[in-house]
Design brief:
The protein is an alpha/beta fold. It is built from 8 helices and 9 strands. It is about 40% helix and about 15% strand. The chain has a 5-stranded parallel β-sheet with strand order 2-1-3-4-5, sandwiched between helices. Strands 6-7-9-8 form a 4-stranded antiparallel β-sheet. The protein starts with a strand and ends with a helix.
């Protein structure tokens, strides 16, 4: 089984590492990606688990941010100079075992020169690097995945979804209009969540939980609503858990923000829910 190991320094690139880890799991499969805290079980011995993970890795991704080389300990000594520094140790093991390394430069950082590195990892600059920038996140992650699949035969678990580009976009609701929604659709709330596969982008949504009397009734409510939602041509994201149906609505083509389409859908679902409950009690 193919495995990729993510090497990073928490004080330097924790946010980017977690974002990349999340997307690689989504695209390649959870079992194919290892990143220290996120992948180590509670009962595992830390050094043994990491050594085992590197030994079984096919590729090591080395994330390098602005403070990667200059990060210091409490005595102001460079961490990279410590033989027991985990970042250095993981890179050293990969070099010793001939594991391919991909340096990933965060933002505008650069790969340190060989003479700035301890001798046992001085070969790091000889590996071709890729860049990972917030403003180009999707494309940069795509380049990393393309390298993994084309050069090292990783297989994609899920492809990136490409949605059609509409001819005309609806304006995003202003802050004042959003404030007014509390009176207009009081049973709905505004929430924000990460867009799967598109870190660090987020989506703003309207959400309501509809309570039903049984699992079967919850399914029937979804079926009852689906035809009229389809006529509206604005489709929600929803999930059914036992006796509840949670509906999320956002407009994807304006950056996953709330527009009048979401308000119209919310009002329609409110009406459909009342109608459905009346029929169920009749």
């Amino acid at each position: 089984m193919k495995r990729v190991f993510i090497n990073y320094r928490r004080s330097d690139s924790k946010r980017s590492a977690r974002g990349l880890y999340s997307q690689l799991q989504h695209r390649l499969g959870r079992q194919h990606v290892f990143m220290d805290v996120s992948s180590i079980g509670m009962a595992s011995k830390w050094p043994d688990r990491i050594d085992d993970a590197i030994s079984n890795a096919d590729v090591l991704l080395c994330l390098i941010g602005d403070d990667w080389l200059s990060a210091t300990d409490r005595y102001h000594r460079r961490r990279i100079d410590h033989p027991d520094d985990w970042v250095r140790r993981e890179i050293r093991i990969a070099i010793e075992r001939g594991i391919p390394i991909l340096p990933i430069l965060i933002g505008e950082s650069a790969v340190p020169a060989s003479e700035a590195l301890p001798e046992d990892i001085s070969a790091l600059p000889s590996f071709q690097a890729r860049r990972l920038r917030d403003e180009e996140w999707e494309d940069d992650v795509e380049n990393v995945i393309r390298w993994l699949t084309s050069e090292h035969r990783f297989l994609e678990n899920q492809k990136r979804i490409v949605l059609p580009d509409p001819a005309k976009r609806t304006p995003v609701l202003t802050d004042m209009e959003l404030d007014n929604l509390r009176n207009e659709i009081p049973k709905w709330e505004m929430v924000e969540s990460e867009v799967p596969g598109e870190y660090p982008q987020s989506r703003h949504e309207l959400r309501r939980v509809f309570r039903l009397d049984s699992f079967q009734e919850a399914i029937r409510f979804m079926e009852f609503s689906s035809a009229k939602i389809d006529d509206l041509n604005h489709h929600p994201r929803w999930e059914n858990i036992w006796k509840s149906v949670t509906v999320y609505s956002t407009t994807w083509d304006v950056g996953n923000r709330i527009t009048k389409h979401d308000v119209v859908l919310a009002k329609l679902l409110d009406e459909l829910y009342s109608e459905f409950r009346s029929h169920a009690k009749a």
